[in-house]
Write a structure and sequence with these properties.
Blueprint (H helix, E strand, L loop, with lengths): L10 E4 L2 E4 L3 H13 L4 E6 L1 H8 L2 H8 L3 E4 L2 H9 L10 H13 L4 E6 L4 H12 L4 E6 L8 H14 L3 E5 L4 H9 L7 E4 L3 H5 L8 H5 L3 H8 L1 H24 L10
Parallel strand pairs: 3-4, 3-8, 5-6, 5-7, 7-8
Antiparallel strand pairs: 1-2
Helix pairs in contact: 1-5, 2-3, 2-12, 11-12
Length: 263
Amino acid sequence: MPPPDHARPPRANVLGVGVSAINMAEALQLSERLLREQGKGYVCLTGVHGIMEAQRDDTLRAILNRSFLCAPDGMPTVWVGRLQGHRTMRRVYGPDYMLEMCKMTARSGSRHFLYGGKAGVALRLKQQLELMVPTINIVGTYTPPFRPLTPPEEDRMIAMVNQARPDIVWIGLSTPKQERFMARYADRIDASLMIGIGAAFDIHAGLLTDAPGWVKRCGLQWLDRLVKEPRRLWRRYLTNNPKFLWDIGLQLSGLRRFDIDEC
């Protein structure tokens, strides 16, 4: 179930996906408040890839729209939001959000769990975060197999996570797997926040270099990632990006209507 409307900020309509009209400071403030009030919700960090996946999958679009925050992790989503009147909207870049959340919650003693990544990545990420934020409290890690969990594996995973009593569960499975994971287990995992963070696992573990700041500000991070991972990403970007531009042109011109639907 989505959190009460008063707990969520306004949203920009990006092809029927409600992208939270927030900036980094607001994302941190809202997340900290949910933790402090012992609420419950999940956070999606969404760019063009997530928006376009949601065009082909009504269930994924509903998952994004039911989230506590669907943060704008991509400059095109920010630009669309500003055109719709959300002037203070800024990018909430996943790796930066993760690190700032870790620093902020370390002061209050929040408990973190790391779920996802390739073999060894979650443990390496734990070690790196403990170097960057010495007072952080990481209570467990889990690397799932590259296949759906069997029912017994699901039960063991949930029992392990809940036994660790995390306040925040970070999910590093990439889009749309991590969004599906959060929606599937939101009622079974006893944590205030689940956050789908994708490539932040590899970046903070030191396995993937981040793009320069000017590249991110210009909305060209997709090109930087394509150069670094052409085999994995070429189809995603060369298919999604032109289609996004076409569809957003139709939406902004009023030639096609995209409704935000949580059902």
